[in-house]
Amino acid sequence: MYALHRRVLAAGIAALCLAGGPHAAAQAAEIRFGYAGPLTGPQSHYGEDMQNGLTLALEEANKQGIKIDGDTARFVLVSRDDQADPRVGVQVAQQLVDEEVVGILGHFNSGTTIPASRVYHEAGLPQIAMATSPEYTRQGYETTFRMMTSDTQQGAAVGKFMVETLKAKKIAIIDDRTAYGQGLADEVEKAVKAAGGTVARREYTTDKATDFNAILTNVKGVAPDAIFYGGLDAQSGPMKRQLVSLGIKAPLVSGEMTRSDTYLKLAGDAAEGTYASLAGVPLEQMSAGKEFAQRYEARFKKAPGVYAPYAYDGAWTMITAIQKADSADPSDYLPELAKIDRKGATSEHIAYDKNGDLKEISVTIYQVRDGKWQMVQTMVSQAN
């Protein structure tokens, strides 16, 4: 697909150059990446943060004047709003394929990424996604790669933390039934049991709910030592308020979607004491996190969120694979992507296993103290 697109462009460029059109040469090396994420709605702050990280990487690459197949490359991001909706996600995936992009940097949510990944696989397009659900890279597609640690790895760390560090032997688990929320909760449940704890109650809600009193009343009845929630900050914020109003003292523990400023605003004073895991390490502990934050703030006039540095590294990983192949044809650079090992903003060694999961496993636990997210502990290891 890409090779044909280049040939068509080359023919047009040759004609324009004969007519004295110098600008056409720059267009010959345009390399288009597709991005899809939630750019509207309650999850738009996640999608914008991810898009900003990608944008910064591509702008920096363009300033370097990178040569691909003899031409100076101009990297372009083609963005689509998938609304965090699986049906819309498949639709925009096909739109991006039709736009003749050469690679996909997205989606954000696991629920949109998994069905969209089939579209990209059938088109032969490499995809580096933020999605953390284990199912994403278990499909057997050679085109799927991650920007962050998977929920299998994150859930194992969180379950162990609750039982061994918080000394919580009896745990209640709630999830929002999304691919992300349920997948993470399932992994946490396995880890709790493996660490010697018990799951006293398992409850379910949706990613649109705001009233959790009935669920929390059921949870209160089993007197858990801790409560884990797999889902978004739009739900965990009001959920924590309702936990406090019901007099439930057990700490709320959640995943990276809760570790946000939005959660702090939604939960208010009730946020105090909440724990949340984050795949990765704190920005200040990243390989080049401080420098990344400075460049991000200079460009966007605000501090980066959780996902921006991982998106930034995802974009540079795809660019680096194209450089190594000296080609933006997906069939040429996909093998280079699979065997890559590079230093990025988030890690000294960004490399993938045979499934497309990151070889380096890093998970950090945070707690809300004095109204701010503060680090509790970081766990870094290598996948087997």
Automatic annotation (TrEMBL):
Signal peptide, first to last residue: 1-24
Superkingdom, natural source: Bacteria
Record has Lipid metabolism as a keyword: no
Ranges of residues in domain Leucine-binding protein: 30-371
Record's keyword annotation contains Hydrolase: no
SUPFAM superfamilies with a match to the protein in the record: Periplasmic binding protein-like I
UniProt keyword annotations, A-Z: Signal
Family, similarity comment: Belongs to the leucine-binding protein family.
Protein's recorded name: Branched chain amino acid ABC transporter substrate-binding protein
